[in-house]
């Protein structure tokens, strides 16, 4: 009996590893291996043609002490993340709450609001954005109806990042769908009890909706930050593809791409990638650590 | 009093409709401009074309350097379909192992799988490029499709693991008593029940692959291999001398497949996002 159980376990083991085989190959050859590979390359000078030459920490030293494009692109990306993520989540939450009030035709509205998230990542929409925000484009024509003289959103280095932010905020639909699902989970008797106690709508929002929804907000926040930090297509297409005008579209990933695949400085690009990994890791950790102060997991099973 | 409530209800719709129109305007602008003659595109902000033409579609479809957009669409479809198949097959295999089988080190592998979900693509980018370059796979579709056949989109593994965990274990146990092997349980029981998760995986893989621009740009430079995204980018000249009508016409067409998939599978879509937080 004992041996047959053992052989059964061994058989299960073998079957399981057979099922896992594609993933294991992918994990070692395309994820873990390349990760270590890029860590090694980041300590070298490498241009794909000749073998890498060892530099030690030179790439990192240069990035942190002499590379103004690096610090500029990092600041620009932070600016983009810190403006677009809160705006996008706020919009998503606001519209989700408005749609959740038993409104008729909810399905149609949800679809319309989701369509930007569906299409927004494409080259086509980035081109549209470039056109409607152009100096003589639709946005400025609309502003002039209100007597506002709009700036040249695309060609002026101070404004182009706002154009890219609006493209990101425009795609609030996916976060909104997640919020809508979260709102449906909040037990209605909480609102009924608040109603009985005479709490006003605004207080209900801050004392019931927000805390009950905080796990969903937390999740949305982490995913949005990680995702926004890696934005590439909008910066590449709305700008000139080389970071211009005046490095105003030099997002972090674009800089990494140019270093690695235009200048073929692949060691340097790998160092940039590892710094990016660490930054994203730290940002995620900060959100995790602070979450215990603002994320409410409820004290019973129904609390989530 | 009744009337008042009715007005109140209608009033609630007004801001939502206005915002909705504002949201959808850029898409409508794209579609309507693609039917306008070139000189009207930028002079006429209204959505209804005062002069209607199909020339943009004819000109755009012709493509460039003797390669038409039918080629680009066929290429994009081929890459997307192969990616979908890869993700559906290999992710479901891995998910079944994680969710149902007991094996050595399963906890460690599962934890590593979770970590890879959060990893930014860029940290593996350069060595992957080096590997594919060594294999002489630049300007082939292997670098775009092979990763999907090795289940590197571990996000979908997690999605399916959660789904399989919701399937009652008693079903497996009774099947085992009836003499089913683990492989038979996977093929005969889990796969058919997993269909909703497989559909969610398929539609998101399709859309992400279709929209993917970064890796297509890195790995493909031969025009005959270009995808729709690369074709549009090549039509577009940032310095401003593009044939805008043709560009917008092809842009409109490029959005059709994902819109069609979305409308056909809307239910799976919205459920998929809501339960897993897919983008």
Description of the structure:
The complex is a heterodimer of chains A (304) and B (279). By secondary structure, chain A is mainly α. Chain A folds into two domains: 2-41; 59-303, MetI-like (MetI-like fold), CATH 1.10.3720.10. Chain A is 72% helix and 1% strand. Chain A is built from 13 helices and two strands; from the N terminus they run H-E-E-H-H-H-H-H-H-H-H-H-H-H-H. Chain A has helices at 2-41, 58-65, 68-99, 106-119, 123-132, 138-145, 160-170, 173-185, 188-196, 201-229, 233-238, 252-261, 266-294; strands spanning 44-45, 53-54. In chain A, strands 1-2 form a two-stranded antiparallel sheet. In chain A, helix 10 runs antiparallel to helix 13. In chain A, 37% of the residues are buried. Mean pLDDT of chain A is 89; it is low at 300-304. Chain B is an all-alpha fold. Chain B has two domains: 2-60, no CATH class; 66-276, MetI-like fold (Orthogonal Bundle), CATH 1.10.3720.10. Chain B has 15 helices and no strands. The longest helix of chain B is centred in the N-terminal third of the chain and has 32 residues, at 2-33. Chain B is globular and about 75 Å long. The relative contact order of chain B is 0.14. The chains are: A mainly alpha (304), B mainly alpha (279). Chains A and B meet through helix 1, helix 3, helix 4, helix 5 and helix 6 of A and helix 1, helix 4, helix 5, helix 6 and helix 10 of B.
């Amino acid at each position: 009996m004992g041996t047959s159980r053992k052989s059964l376990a061994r058989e299960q083991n073998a079957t399981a590893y057979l099922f896992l085989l594609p993933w294991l190959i992918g994990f070692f050859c395309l994820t873990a291996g390349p990760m270590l590979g890029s860590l090694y390359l980041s300590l070298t000078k490498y241009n794909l043609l000749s073998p890498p030459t060892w530099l030690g920490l030179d790439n990192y030293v240069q990035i942190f002490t002499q590379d103004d494009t690096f610090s500029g692109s990092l600041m620009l990306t932070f600016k983009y993340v810190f403006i677009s993520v809160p705006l996008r989540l706020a919009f998503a939450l606001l519209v989700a709450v408005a749609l959740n009030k038993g409104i008729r035709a909810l399905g149609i509205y949800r679809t319309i609001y989701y369509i930007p998230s569906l299409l927004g990542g494409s080259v086509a929409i980035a081109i549209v954005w470039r056109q409607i925000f152009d100096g003589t484009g639709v946005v400025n024509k609309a502003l002039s109806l209100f007597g506002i003289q709009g700036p040249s959103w695309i060609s002026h280095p101070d404004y182009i990042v706002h154009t890219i932010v609006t493209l990101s905020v425009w795609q609030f639909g996916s976060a909104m769908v997640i919020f809508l699902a979260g709102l449906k989970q909040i037990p209605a008797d909480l609102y009924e009890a608040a109603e009985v106690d005479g709490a006003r709508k605004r207080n209900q929002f801050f004392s019931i909706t927000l805390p009950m929804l905080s796990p969903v907000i937390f999740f949305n926040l982490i995913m949005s930050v990680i995702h926004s930090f890696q934005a590439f297509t909008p910066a590449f297409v709305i700008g000139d593809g080389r970071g211009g005008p005046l490095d105003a579209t030099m997002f972090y990933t674009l800089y990494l791409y140019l270093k690695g695949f235009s200048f073929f400085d692949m060691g340097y690009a790998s160092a940039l990638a590892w710094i990016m990994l660490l930054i994203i890791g730290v940002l995620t950790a900060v959100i995790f650590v602070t979450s215990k102060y603002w994320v409410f997991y409820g004290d019973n099973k129904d609390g989530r | 009093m009744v009337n008042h409530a009715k007005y109140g209800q209608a009033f609630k719709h007004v801001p939502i409709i206005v915002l909705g129109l504002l949201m959808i305007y850029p898409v409508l602008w794209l579609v309507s401009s693609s039917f306008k003659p070139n000189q009207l595109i930028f002079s006429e902000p209204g959505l209804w074309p005062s002069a209607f033409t199909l020339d943009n579609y004819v000109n755009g479809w012709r493509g460039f350097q003797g390669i038409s957009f039918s080629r680009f669409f066929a290429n994009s479809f081929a890459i997307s379909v192969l990616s979908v198949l890869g993700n559906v097959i290999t992710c479901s295999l891995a998910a079944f192992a994680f969710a149902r089988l007991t094996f050595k080190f399963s906890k460690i592998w599962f934890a590593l799988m979770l970590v890879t979900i959060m990893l930014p693509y860029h940290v593996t980018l350069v060595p992957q490029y080096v590997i594919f370059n060594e294999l002489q796979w630049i300007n082939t579709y292997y670098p775009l499709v092979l990763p999907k056949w090795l289940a590197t989109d571990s996000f979908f593994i997690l999605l399916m693991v959660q789904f399989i965990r919701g399937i009652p274990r008693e079903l497996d146990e009774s099947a085992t008593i009836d003499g089913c092997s683990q492989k038979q349980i996977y093929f005969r029981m889990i796969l058919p029940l997993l269909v909703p998760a497989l559909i969610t995986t398929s539609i998101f893989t399709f859309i992400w692959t279709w929209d993917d621009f970064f890796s297509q740009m890195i790995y493909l430079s031969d025009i005959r291999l270009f995808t729709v995204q690369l074709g549009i980018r090549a039509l577009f000249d940032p310095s401003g001398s593009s044939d805008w009508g043709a560009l917008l016409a092809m842009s409109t067409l490029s959005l059709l497949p994902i819109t069609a998939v979305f409308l056909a599978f809307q239910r799976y879509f919205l459920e998929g996002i809501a339960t897993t937080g897919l983008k």
